[in-house]
């Protein structure tokens, strides 16, 4: 009998132990509440937070409230710019004929006048063209005198009309040949004065003079003395830096507000160096720039004391003539939570909502809000740092 009781106890003991453990686990689970959300300290900084002021805090802080209203303002925007040579103020000097550089008159950094000689190109091809012109000129002179004599003989009925017609045709052919030879030399840049020199000279010097089409400074030289060059090969570049072209790069959204003749303030990238110019937008490119995907605005301006120079980067501040409806709040209403701009919107008596916003521009007295605010809302415009401190204190208290 005792043996049966012992066996029964041994069988029931493990079962009783399991039941006891399960009961203890359920008790522990019941004591730990279920975590349904992150604590406030782990939430995103940009998440809205409610700050509730006590009566004493409202009396001590005396928060100033400013109503929010949208209004039309002159919109200004900033854009990067790059300086280029102005149209008609830059010229690539090239040789129109095959030859050899026999003399270089001007080098990099030298100032040149319009029409001044830059290079001498010695060329057998040029010598042949001069010879062709001189022969055509001589033939025309001969046919001109011949035609005069024939006309006189016809008037005296010594020569026939048919003879005069034949001589006239030969004169026209000689004239056409002379004009063709003249045009070839003019295409090479030979002046009328130089052609007159060829006519009176005893010998032909096969040297072509290359003239500068504009006045300015030699910016780059691409050839050396004695170098053989081919037709249309570049010799140098001349820049007139008295006027420059500045290309500004604006986003497509902002470009819709820009018009020709809008005012532009031009400054150095490092504004501490000074040097500010004022100009107007000359034109706006209709398409997007391929690399930056921006709209290009063109600004023509005169350089002052050699600034700006082609190739330089500048800053542009464009004051648009288009009015833009924006929401403006006092600068005092803005603060930052990390890198996020935030404001405190009044939700009730002593109750403020810390709200993240997107700022489009910060002026001297106002902040222009791109999104995050609506008309007829009210924002705190004083003691916002105290509200910010209280919002952080509430988060710590909740933790």
Automatic annotation (TrEMBL):
Residues covered by the CzcB-like barrel-sandwich hybrid domain: 93-238
Key word Transport present: yes
Instruction: Tell me which residues make up the CzcB-like C-terminal circularly permuted SH3-like domain.
Output: 327-388
Q: Which residues form the signal peptide?
A: 1-20
Presence of the UniProt keyword Transport in the record: yes
Q: Name one GO cellular component term.
A: cell envelope
Which InterPro entries does this one have?
BSH_CzcB-like (IPR058647), CzcB_C (IPR058649), MFP_Cation_Efflux (IPR051909), RND_pump_MFP (IPR006143)
One term of GO molecular function: transmembrane transporter activity
Keyword line: Signal, Transport
Query: Might you name a Gene Ontology BP term for this protein?
Result: copper ion export
Give the top-rank taxon of the lineage listed in the UniProt record for this protein: Bacteria
Similarity annotation: Belongs to the membrane fusion protein (MFP) (TC 8.A.1) family.
The protein here is known as: Efflux RND transporter periplasmic adaptor subunit
């Amino acid at each position: 009998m005792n043996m049966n009781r012992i066996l029964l106890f041994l069988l029931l003991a493990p079962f009783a132990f399991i039941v006891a453990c399960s009961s203890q686990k359920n008790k522990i689970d019941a004591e730990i509440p279920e975590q349904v959300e992150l604590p406030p300290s782990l939430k995103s900084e940009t998440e809205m937070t409610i700050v509730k002021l006590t009566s004493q805090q409202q009396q001590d802080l005396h928060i100033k409230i400013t109503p929010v209203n949208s209004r039309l303002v002159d919109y200004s925007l900033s854009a990067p710019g790059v300086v280029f040579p102005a149209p008609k103020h830059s010229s690539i000097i090239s040789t129109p004929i095959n030859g050899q550089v026999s003399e270089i008159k001007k080098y990099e950094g030298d100032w040149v006048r319009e029409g001044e000689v830059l290079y001498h190109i010695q060329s057998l091809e040029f010598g042949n063209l001069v010879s062709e012109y001189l022969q055509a000129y001589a033939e025309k002179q001969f046919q001109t005198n011949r035609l005069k004599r024939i006309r006189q003989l016809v008037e005296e009925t010594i020569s026939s009309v048919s003879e005069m017609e034949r001589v006239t045709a030969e004169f026209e052919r000689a004239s056409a040949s002379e004009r063709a030879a003249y045009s070839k030399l003019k295409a090479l840049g030979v002046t009328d004065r130089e052609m007159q020199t060829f006519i009176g000279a005893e010998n032909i010097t096969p040297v072509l003079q290359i003239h500068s089409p504009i006045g300015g400074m030699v910016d780059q030289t691409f050839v050396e003395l004695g170098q053989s060059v081919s037709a249309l090969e570049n010799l140098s570049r001349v820049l007139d830096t008295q006027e420059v072209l500045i290309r500004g790069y604006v986003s497509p959204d902002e470009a819709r507000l820009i018009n020709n003749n809008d005012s532009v303030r031009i400054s150095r990238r490092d504004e501490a160096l000074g040097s500010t110019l004022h100009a107007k937008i000359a034109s706006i490119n209709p398409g997007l720039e391929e690399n930056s995907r921006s709209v290009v605005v063109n600004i023509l301006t005169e350089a002052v004391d050699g600034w700006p120079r082609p190739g330089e980067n500048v800053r542009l501040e464009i004051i648009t003539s288009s009015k833009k409806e924006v929401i403006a709040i006092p600068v005092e209403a803005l603060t930052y939570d990390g890198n996020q701009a935030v404001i405190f919107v009044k939700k009730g008596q002593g109750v403020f909502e810390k709200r993240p916003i997107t700022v489009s521009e910060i002026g001297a007295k106002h902040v222009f809000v791109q999104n995050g605010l609506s008309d007829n809302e009210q924002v705190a415009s004083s003691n916002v740092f105290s509200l910010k401190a209280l919002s952080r204190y509430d988060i710590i208290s909740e933790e």
